[in-house]
From TrEMBL:
GO biological process, one term: single strand break repair
Record-linked PROSITE patterns: HIT_2
Protein name: Aprataxin isoform X1
Coiled coil segments of this chain: none
Localization per record: Nucleus
Organism: Ceratina calcarata
Domain HIT, residue spans: 42-144
Gene Ontology molecular function terms on file: DNA 5'-adenosine monophosphate hydrolase activity; double-stranded RNA binding; metal ion binding; mismatched DNA binding; single-strand break-containing DNA binding; single-stranded DNA binding
Length: 221
């Protein structure tokens, strides 16, 4: 599934958007169940913005939803109402929007003062529609299953919102990273984000993470 999603978003990059538009129509016209399922999963965020069970809050510019498959105790997505396909479609005129999204994210984190958070974007997002991740650093969730999941938040594959806003402010544009360079981070060896531990596999990593969660009650029990 990850490979399928990366393939979808690769053609949805700024320099390949015309390919995505063609594939979009082809998938819509194709009756293949597997292809239809892939398209739906990649564009599911747009539908989730209207789901009352996922929606947390909204204003005239953005919608905040809970991630349907949270990778931590608290995992939110902030999406613009404007139809911006991905981070690499952001323009200089969207600077105020990105700052607004970041400010909303910071307000969310203050609702959970006992937790640390990461605020940022995936270099190669797996879903259509620009979305900002707001995720607690406990990473205590049954949905955190693969090395790809882990490395997508704990390596330079994760682009911090403050850095993105600064780059857009100073240069007037966002320089898209090479697809191959970004996705290479997903295959690096596992490493704890809080200490020097290097677990051999995901079960070992998840057991180790409990060391860093004294006194915190799991929301998934």
């Amino acid at each position: 599934m990850w490979k399928l999603r990366f393939k979808f978003l690769y053609v949805c990059s700024s320099r390949n958007y015309h390919l995505w538009k063609g594939n979009n129509q082809a998938i819509m016209d194709n009756k293949s169940k597997s292809k239809s399922k892939t398209f739906h999963s990649a564009t599911g965020l747009v539908a989730s913005m209207k789901d009352p069970e996922l929606k947390v809050k909204e204003d005239d510019r953005i919608v905040v939803i809970k991630d349907k498959y949270p990778k931590a105790q608290f995992h939110y997505l902030i999406l613009p109402k404007a139809d911006i396909p991905s981070l690499w479609h952001v323009k200089k005129e969207n600077e105020d929007l990105l700052i607004h999204m970041h400010n909303v994210a910071e307000k969310l984190t203050r609702e959970h003062e006992d937790y640390e958070f990461l605020i940022g974007y995936h270099a190669v997002p797996s879903m259509y529609r620009l979305h900002l991740h707001v995720i607690s650093t406990d990473f205590n969730s049954p949905c955190l299953k693969t090395k790809y999941h882990w490395n997508s938040f704990t390596t330079p594959f994760f682009l911090h919102s403050t850095d993105i806003c600064k780059e857009l402010r100073e240069t007037g544009e966002l320089k898209e990273q090479k697809f191959e360079d970004s996705t290479a981070y997903l295959n690096v060896p596992l490493k704890c984000h809080k200490c020097s531990a290097t677990p051999k596999n995901m079960p070992e990593l998840k057991r180790h993470l409990m060391v860093h969660l004294p006194g915190k009650k799991s929301l998934f029990n």
